Amino acid sequence: MNMKTIEKNKQTVRKHLFIVFTLLVGGFLFFQSCDSDKILDENLYTFQDKMMGQFLTDSADFSEFARLLDTTNVMGLLNTYGTYTCFAPNNEAMKKYYTLHNKSSLSDFTLDTLKLIAYDHIINGDEVLYSNFVNGILPQTSMSDRYISISFGATGNAIVNKTSNIIENNVMVHNGVLHLIDEVLNPVREGIVEVLAADQKFTLFYEALIATGLADSLLRTKDDTYNPEEFDYLIDVPREANQWFYQEIPLARKFGYTIFVESNETLASYGITDLESMKAKAAEIYDLVYPADANITDTYNRKNSLNRFIAYHLVNKQLGYSKLIDAYDTGHMVKNVDMYEYLEPMCPNTLIEIKKERLSGETNLINFLREKGSVIRITANRDNPAGNGVYHEIDGLLVYSQDVEAEHSTKRLRFDSASFFPELINNNMRGRGVTSPGPGPNLQFKLPRNYIDRLYTSEQTVVSYLTADARYQNYQGDEIFLGATSGNLYDFSIVTPPIPAGTYEVRFGYLTNGKRGVAQLYFDNIPAGVPLNLNNYATDVAIGYETPGTVQADLEGFENDKMMRNRGYMKGPAAMVSMNCAWSCGQPNSRYSPAALRRILGTYVFEKAENHLFTVKGLSGGEFMFDYLEFVPTNVLESEDIY
Fold first, then answer.
1. How many angstroms separate the CA atoms of 404 and 570, rounded?
2. pTM for the model
3. What is the CATH number of domain 3-181?
4. What is the pLDDT of residues 484-528, one digit of tens each?
5. For residue 33, what pLDDT is reported?
6. Out of 2.40.50.100, 2.60.120.260, 2.40.440.10, 2.40.50.460, which CATH number does the structure's domain 413-636 have?
7. Whole-angstrom Cα distance, residue 505 to residue 602?
8. In sequence order, what are the residues at sequence separation of 6 or more whose Cβ sits closer than 8 angstroms to the Cβ of residue 604?
């Protein structure tokens, strides 16, 4: 926990009286929809005009937890102004914890252990109400830097970290909210390899993980050389400035992993009962995709079929169930249009597709094949936590087969700019929800140079990640935002995810306004047409945009689409919309907005599946925003939809 952040929070005075009054008046109907009537204690809003620490001190049922807070000096923090969420275990829970650890009282634990226990139960800087709970991992981390998961029992009762029942929720105090629980939280701290090794459902997959040496790719936890205090100079607008946005430096540079894993039982249904039969199945699939590598028998070789099979299950992002796609389904996304997210696994030059299907309401459909109708689903055994990752059980064999390769190479691939960078998800920046549904303050992260592995910048370039904001008209609501130090020009390159072999039209999605300058775009080091003026709205004569429905002879705007394409531009996709029209608007979707544009970079032939380089060089002062990239096979251009 960065102590500077704690001190800033201490200076922020939070007033809850008005909020609580509003909730008391309107909360009954709202919370019926959340099944919160099934929580054991029906008194969902017990308002106390006290600090959190004082409330715990005065509550006889929480005297043990209060004593722990006193012993570790954490009580002083909870008696200060700021914003806190506390999952408070009652006395019975504390005594049960002592027994489980062969202790008789708090005094039998070391001070460091007690402080860690205290931090496990507190979120600093956020008020997480019951209505904010998701069925999965919360976006906010505890003071011990651990994620907290929420699930719901058969009767609708909320369960924390799969073990602790919430016996009373939303106890409002002057500086935050408490949720009272019946078991001490004890988050997993072992690495993901150790945790998976102990799970008897997945022993065969674990054996192959070791046999391929890929377990060594899942060991990193944190970059110990990173010190956020060295980059405080990047902050121009702190939270206490009370502007429409505020800036923060990432507090850490953590690494994280996700494993999609088949159980022994599921593998057996495919004829895989031991390591040798797994090797045979992997060769059967991957030798067809990579025939030149069919004779590689060394399982440590990244081109070996078993190595590819296991590596395709591993992703270098810590993705809880909700962070696979649901967390990015903000109000900016049109809700009758299917949504897609693409992951880059450790199997070189491959993709995993995650689909959210609107008609059925299903989410996290993995590698859906349109022609066959086949799909991989995540089972109820998901969000299994580790100190540096999470694993999900899947119900079928996850492979990069010829069918999957064909699926990915014959459809439009759209990547949100933030999806390129594991650092944004592993350090809790991406997927935090819409930070300002208000309008209110938008959280913007200033990213130190070299913080992002696949982002190369000049020393003069300043990079920010802007979290989702209701006023932005952006795909998934967020954006990468770039500028330069005073008197200089930005210059940066981004490594894209791997794209399958084929011929593609490549497009750059952005939002224009009058504060942005002129830049030259490059793709794989080749200039992509003439310089782009990001100040020009689509109505500029050089672009020629006409709002759909305004020209009688072209009400759908399709003829205008053709004219714009001839000039190298396209309207924004109909899959997104602005939530709040404060700055730019386009209803019912972004095709109706002259600020939302796509620039066609050109047509490119990719001889093989691989990563590519997108480069931007500023030619004048001003801002640059990067929203998304699209890769569209040229053979589907004629049939491409407007979404």
1. 29
2. 0.88
3. 2.30.180.10
4. 998 899 999 999 999 999 999 999 999 998 888 899 999 999 999
5. 34
6. 2.60.120.260
7. 6
8. 503, 504, 506, 523, 524
